[in-house]
Amino acid sequence: SPAGLQNDHKALMKQVEEALHQLHAREKEKHAKDEAEALAEAMSQNQSLPQAFAKVNAVTPGSPASVSGLQVDDEIVEFGSVNVNNFQNLQNIATVVQHSEGRPLSVTVIRSGKKVHLGLTPKRWAGKGLLGCNIIPLQR
């Protein structure tokens, strides 16, 4: 009878609806998990920021440093072969710079809590030095 068919249809729709609810609930959970993971990753990145040994306190506009994207207040964690483990003084950086004239140096800085990689090519330009920035050692 037609009434029986209608009931079947209703039951079927109810099943479909429940399945959809479950699917959405799963999606929601998955989304929450993704967010939690993203957050955890962000947190662990913050903790694992390498130690900076120097800081940029001046960058001359138009200089090689400025062209490479170096900014004032960038904290230097790697400057070519110099890092926190072998850095003694600014002469270390000066030496690397002199040996790398015209060749890109890999520089890693911490800028507002994130690691930023830059390619910095020391070269002669209108100003003094090969970089056009001023770097100060960070007091430990």
TrEMBL record:
GO biological process, one term: proteasome regulatory particle assembly
Family: Belongs to the proteasome subunit p27 family.
Name used for this protein in its record: 26S proteasome non-ATPase regulatory subunit 9
Organism phylogeny: Eukaryota, Metazoa, Chordata, Craniata, Vertebrata
Listed SUPFAM superfamilies: PDZ domain-like (SSF50156)
Family matches, as InterPro entries: PDZ, PDZ_6, PDZ_sf, PSMD9
One Pfam family it belongs to: PDZ_6
Coiled coil: 9-46
Keywords from the UniProt entry: Chaperone, Coiled coil, Proteasome
GO cellular component: cytoplasm; nucleus; proteasome complex
Ranges where the PDZ domain occurs: 21-113
Quaternary structure (record): Interacts with PSMC3. Part of a transient complex (modulator) containing PSMD9, PSMC6 and PSMC3 formed during the assembly of the 26S proteasome.
Alphabetical list of PANTHER family matching this protein: 26S PROTEASOME NON-ATPASE REGULATORY SUBUNIT 9
Highest taxon, organism lineage: Eukaryota
Function: Acts as a chaperone during the assembly of the 26S proteasome, specifically of the base subcomplex of the PA700/19S regulatory complex (RC). During the base subcomplex assembly is part of an intermediate PSMD9:PSMC6:PSMC3 module, also known as modulator trimer complex; PSMD9 is released during the further base assembly process.
Gene3D superfamilies listed in its UniProt record: 2.30.42.10
Source species of the chain: Gavia stellata (Red-throated diver)
